[in-house]
Amino acid sequence: MFNTRVFAVLKRELRERIMTKSFIISTLAMPLIMVLLFGFQYLMLSMEGDAGTSIFIACENDAVTKGLKEEFSKTSWVKNGDYTLTYRSMSGEEFETYFAEHKTDILNGKVTGILFIPGSAMKDKKVKFYSKSTKNLTVERKLSRVINLVFINNYFADKGISKEDILFARINVDFNTFKVTKSEGVKKESGGNLALAYVFSFLLYISLVMMGAWVLNSVIEEKTNRVCEVILSSLNARELMTGKIIGSALTGLLQMTIWLMPIVVVIGFKLPVLPTGFIVDLDAWQVLYFLLNYFIGLITFLGLYASVGAIFNNAQEAQSGAMPLLMLIIIPFFITMSMITSPTNTLAEVSSLLPFSSIIVMPARMTLVDVPLWQFILSFIVNIGTIVALFPFAGKIYRIGILRTGKKPKLKEIIKWIKFQY
Asked: Which residues of the chain are in CATH 3.40.190.10 domains?
């Protein structure tokens, strides 16, 4: 399949893509975009958005009221004025009357919420919280932690247990995690590889979508401008498609390599850019596998995008036709997001061995768990087999569609293209 004509198309694709402002800007801007994106996400997580919270707390138990005042006064978010808490001891009947009279305080924003702690809460830990929002997890998390401490203190107060024992009971379990591998034994984990899996998945998702759109629009432009008719006078459609796909794939591979360089340098040379104690375990073979896997994935998806572009006459129609291809990228990306909470889930393991999904899922999975060698080999065979199985059909669609103009073909007509023998 490789000859001087294919090589000429390949050089043309490389020249037209690499030596353009859009390629240079997108290549240089992506690391900055990633830093801004992850920085913004971290900022959003650190800024919980609950400043100015005002809570009225009513308790049936005087001891609980006293304990709440003492414990809440120790919290940073009460000390710095983010939370304003008002306490009062009252019975259940008094609270019902109070709530009926002050319900409008919640509606007009005078108070964020009203909390009632009945006497029975010392047995079942059930409290009532009234607010305009259906579920404010930040407020509930902060309040429940302190309330639970007060419950523990009061529950064991008359049971002859020392303060040291109560303090121990209040301390949460602190997990020190270690990753066990066959090749390197036990390694300390800090969440660094979890972030790396997210970065790998994000880069694959963005690049596959972006490169696919480039090829799609390029094919449509050549078709509508009749450039392809001039080119096809010197070579056949299969050679044109091969050169276009490989040239675009090499362009994407160069771009991805540039994107990975800062990550590899920071991790490899252990530069003091990462937070203290943030450990990322990344080997050279994993980077090479990532690039090889990405290159194979590019060839697969670009071939499909090129065939879709050959079917339609304008970008608007092609976007709807390319939607199934986009879903083949989005769904595996969502699967990798599920690995954040459960890296060893069965869905991730199975999808890392399936066509299309393995391109995105396997690189993320290899950073989180010790993947057996046979699974890498099987994933590679599946991806190569996908290319071998799909490209004859994609080539037929491209060969006929690239020269066809007029109304949009129907599905039955496209199936006839695939069945056509030449």
From this structure: 53-170
**Most confident of the ranges 164-173, 216-225, 288-297, 411-420:** 288-297
Q: What is the pLDDT of residue 361?
A: 94
Question: Does the pLDDT of residue 40 top 70, yes or no?
Answer: no
3-state secondary structure labels for all residues of the chain: CCCHHHHHHHHHHHHHHHCCHHHHHHHHHHHHHHHHHHHHHHHHHHCCCCCCEEEEEEECCHHHHHHHHHHHCCCHHHHCCCEEEEEEECCHHHHHHHHHHHHHHHHCCCCCEEEEECCCHHHHCCCEEEECCCCCHHHHHHHHHHHHHHHHHHHCCCCCCCHHHHHHHHCCCCCCCEEEECCCEEEECCCHHHHHHHHHHHHHHHHHHHHHHHHHHHHHHHHHCCHHHHHCCCCCHHHHHHHHHHHHHHHHHHHHHHHHHHHHHHHHCCCCCCCCCCCCCCCHHHHHHHHHHHHHHHHHHHHHHHHHHHHCCCHHHHHHHCHHHHHHHHHHHHHHHHCCCCCCCHHHHHHCCCCCHHHHHHHHHHHHCCCCHHHHHHHHHHHHHHHHHHHHHHHHHHHHHCCCCCCCCCHHHHHHHHHCCC
| CATH number belonging to the domain at 53-170, selected among 3.40.1280.10, 3.40.190.10, 3.40.50.300, 3.40.50.2300 | 3.40.190.10
pLDDT at 190 over 60: no
| Residue 212's pLDDT band (cuts 50, 70, 90) | very high
The overall pTM is greater than 0.85: no
